[in-house]
UniProtKB/TrEMBL annotation:
Official protein name in the record: PepSY domain-containing protein
InterPro entries documented for this protein: PepSY-ass_TM
Ranges annotated as spanning the membrane: 20-44, 164-185, 217-237, 368-389
UniProt-listed Pfam families: PepSY_TM
Keyword Membrane: yes
Record's keyword terms, sorted: Membrane, Transmembrane, Transmembrane helix
Length: 399
């Protein structure tokens, strides 16, 4: 009796799993396809950019060894040559002296219903820091990887509500992955043989091959797909981030940065402020990859900063190992040093979430695995639709 009751429960759970899997698949399949494809194509962005922009990134041997020009002077050269109506936002300085400086223009509006209306300017300017020569200018607003990123993030819609158009289907996709695993799970040991790999020796029917592609590849990709989905929701929904933060630190919010009053606010602003900050940063984090200095005195929301923040990146192409320095914006005096190793677990995870989502946290091997998993996720709505369509046509014939 117990066995019969247990079997009934199993059959019932599989029946409901099949219904949810089908309903959600048909309702959000096209969005899952677009989001998966755009995310997959984005994975090797850094490697492709570094290859295509090699001449702008790597400096000539004859220039190396000279003293870099002041950052303020370089900023003025960029401003004069490009003649943009917006100020230069920031500069990224590599610790490798054979690499060029990257000046950034970035301005965003709250208005507009799509990405192209909201992002007013997004340009990267590569500059030879020893001669002041502008090596290359890239309009990142129209770069294929920027567009892929915002398709993946919110289907190119307004950044305030665009993520919900992707976030809600992602929640449904998680349910689809769980129900897919339930449907995949074999009834007994004998049934397991055909669930782990393809056995097409005597199979000529495309429907069976398509079913196996959906079933077997879906199973192998499902665990990484779950990780990708959850880390994506971390960006989209504050309550997901807060839940992670509470689980990792016991607090619902990440520690807020203390606003430090400038002790030298009555002093005349030192013109070499950025160079002073850069020199101190290089001494403190000589083994890091690069650091980013804010140049326009505003944060991402457009509010004026009371001090000068500098973000130090520990490894090239990674955001997980971040150190934050705060300098007095008048005198250049170091006010605070927040190294990566002193962050709590929730803060470390917050910095690492992007790298985990893109696979870069696990190096080039992680990116390759993420890319393959992304391709499989992209194929699942297609093979799933064909499974449903094949069954539908079969039922139509019987009638």
């Amino acid at each position: 009796m117990r066995k019969k009751h247990h079997n009934k429960k199993k059959a019932s759970s599989k029946k409901w799993s099949a219904k949810l899997h089908l309903w959600f698949g048909l309702s959000v399949g096209i969005i899952v396809f677009i989001v998966s494809l755009s995310g997959t194509l984005y994975v090797f962005k850094d490697e492709i950019h570094n290859s295509l922009r090699k001449e702008a990134i790597d400096l000539k041997k004859e220039d190396i060894g000279k003293k870099p020009l002041p950052i303020t002077l370089l900023r003025e050269k960029v401003s004069l040559e490009l003649n943009e109506k917006y100020p230069v936002s920031a500069v990224e300085i590599p610790l490798d002296k054979t690499k060029s400086y990257q000046f950034e223009y970035y301005e965003k509006s709250k208005k507009g219903w799509n990405y192209f209306q909201q992002v007013l300017i997004n340009k990267q300017v590569y500059v030879n820091q020893y001669t002041g020569e502008i090596l290359a200018v890239y309009n990142e607003k129209y770069d294929v990887f920027s567009i892929l990123k915002y398709i993946h993030w919110g289907l190119l819609l307004n950044s305030e509500w665009g993520p919900y158009t992707v976030g809600i289907p992602t929640v449904l996709f998680i349910i689809m992955l769980i129900t897919g695993i339930i449907l995949w799970w074999p009834k007994n040991k004998n049934a397991r043989k055909g669930r782990f790999w393809f056995n097409w020796e005597n199979v000529k029917n495309w429907k069976r091959k398509n079913y196996d592609l959906h079933n077997i590849l879906g199973f192998y990709a499902s665990f990484i797909a779950l990780l990708l989905s959850v880390t994506g929701l971390y960006f989209a929904y504050p309550y997901v981030k807060n839940t992670f933060t509470f689980a990792l630190s016991g607090s619902w919010e990440l520690p807020k940065e203390k606003e430090r009053k400038s002790p030298d606010s009555l002093m005349a602003k030192n013109e070499a402020i950025f160079d002073l900050a850069a020199a101190q940063t290089e001494k403190l984090y000589a083994k890091s990859s690069s650091f980013r200095i804010n140049l326009n005195g505003k944060n991402k929301k457009g509010k004026e900063l009371k001090n000068l923040p500098v973000t130090v990146y520990g490894l090239d192409g990674r955001y997980s190992e971040r150190n934050i320095l705060t300098f007095d914006k008048y005198s250049g005096k170091l006010l605070a040093n927040k190294p990566h190793h002193k962050l709590n677990t929730a803060e470390k995870y917050s910095n690492a979430n992007y790298d985990i989502h893109t696979g870069s946290y696990f190096g080039i091997i992680g990116k390759i695995i993420w890319f393959i998993a992304g391709l499989i996720c992209t194929s699942l709505p297609v093979t799933g639709f064909l499974v449903w369509w094949g069954k539908r046509k079969k039922k139509g014939k019987k009638i």
